[in-house]
């Protein structure tokens, strides 16, 4: 029985192994290349900037993120918008690398623009570079926490990585800020997987809680059993100690006087006085002494004396005291005769 209980507890204590969740939708391998930094001069000559970024595009350099704390002049702001326009034209022609270059130029000219980061994030999504898209989307949301395009780009990028629950959250936020059909289409693919994952997680959270509850209950029962066993042991010890105490009392008078007088006086007088005078004293007068009361004991003794009580009292007080009583009674009776 104990082995069965141990086996059951061992089975209950085993780790819960989660099964895989059946999900739908395609994902891509994460792009783990961090953006590389390049040296650039803060020059006001826009022609030099165009030349520099053409070199960057040619050698596929990835430039650093802009500094959103710098002050942006009107000239740089206008130049940033011009670079963005060129990027949109390149996107329409499918020239995504070129578009990235123009958008990078736009970001460096105006690093305080959330829409520039969000737009570049959307291009990285087209290039299947979700991690790069998430970096740009995060930058856009740091500048503008209400950027619908930032949430949209990050949500789509997360769905590409299989981060279904996070993607659904971002896309719902984007839809609240600025609903469009693309967000709705992506949500139709994302939400079923997000729901499956949530149900899967709740299922195993419930199983783990049930396992923990069973463990707590087993521990409670174990402690209760230990307390009961301790109580029973103490009770048995107390009973055993009490029994030994009674057995250790001095051997006394089993139903009689010392030296084995079963229920009678010395000399073996069963139920009567010395000499074996059944029912009265020697020479007694039936019916009592002259002038005696009716119902008294023959021989003049009062009829209401219970000799058994006298014997019992004498047994408690001791043999010598009893003998004195009967000698006194005997002499008194003879004197009256």
UniProtKB/TrEMBL annotation:
Residues 253-262 have a biased composition (Gly residues). Residues 239-252 have a biased composition (Low complexity). SUPFAM superfamilies: TPR-like. Keywords: Repeat, TPR repeat. GO terms for molecular function: Hsp70 protein binding. Residues 1-32 have a biased composition (Acidic residues). PROSITE patterns: TPR. Residues 1-34, 212-262 are annotated as: Disordered. TPR repeats lie at residues 114-147. GO terms for cellular component: histone deacetylase complex. InterPro entries: TPR-like_helical_dom_sf, TPR_rpt. This is Uncharacterized protein. It comes from Vitis rotundifolia.
């Amino acid at each position: 029985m104990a082995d069965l209980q141990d086996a059951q507890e061992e089975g209950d204590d085993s780790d819960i192994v989660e099964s895989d969740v059946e999900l739908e939708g395609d994902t891509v391998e994460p792009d783990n290349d961090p953006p590389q930094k390049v040296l650039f001069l803060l020059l006001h000559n826009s022609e030099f900037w165009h030349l520099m970024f053409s070199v960057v595009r040619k050698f596929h350099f990835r430039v650093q993120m802009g500094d959103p704390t710098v002050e942006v002049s009107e000239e740089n702001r206008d130049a940033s918008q011009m670079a963005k326009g060129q990027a949109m034209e390149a996107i329409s022609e499918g020239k995504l690398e070129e578009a990235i270059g123009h958008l990078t130029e736009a970001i460096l000219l105006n690093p305080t623009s959330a829409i520039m980061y969000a737009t570049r994030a959307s291009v990285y999504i087209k290039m299947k570079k979700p991690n790069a898209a998430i970096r740009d989307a995060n930058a856009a949301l740091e500048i503008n926490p209400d950027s619908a395009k930032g949430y949209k780009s990050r949500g789509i990028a997360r769905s590409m990585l299989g981060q279904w629950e996070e993607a659904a959250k971002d896309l719902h936020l984007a839809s609240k800020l600025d609903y469009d059909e693309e967000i709705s289409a992506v949500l139709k693919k994302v939400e079923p997987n997000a729901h499956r994952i949530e149900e899967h997680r709740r299922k195993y959270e419930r199983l783990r809680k049930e396992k923990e509850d069973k463990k707590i209950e087993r521990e409670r029962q174990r402690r209760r059993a230990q307390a009961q066993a301790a109580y029973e042991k103490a009770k048995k010890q107390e009973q055993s100690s009490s029994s030994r105490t009674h057995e250790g009392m001095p051997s006394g008078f089993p139903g009689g006087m010392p030296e084995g007088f079963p229920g009678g006086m010395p000399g073996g007088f069963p139920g009567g006085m010395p000499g074996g005078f059944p029912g009265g004293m020697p020479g007694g007068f039936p019916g009592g002494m002259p002038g005696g009361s009716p119902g008294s004991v023959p021989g003049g003794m009062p009829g209401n004396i219970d000799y058994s009580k006298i014997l019992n009292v004498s047994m408690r007080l001791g043999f010598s005291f009893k003998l004195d009583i009967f000698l006194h009674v005997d002499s008194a009776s003879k004197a009256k005769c």
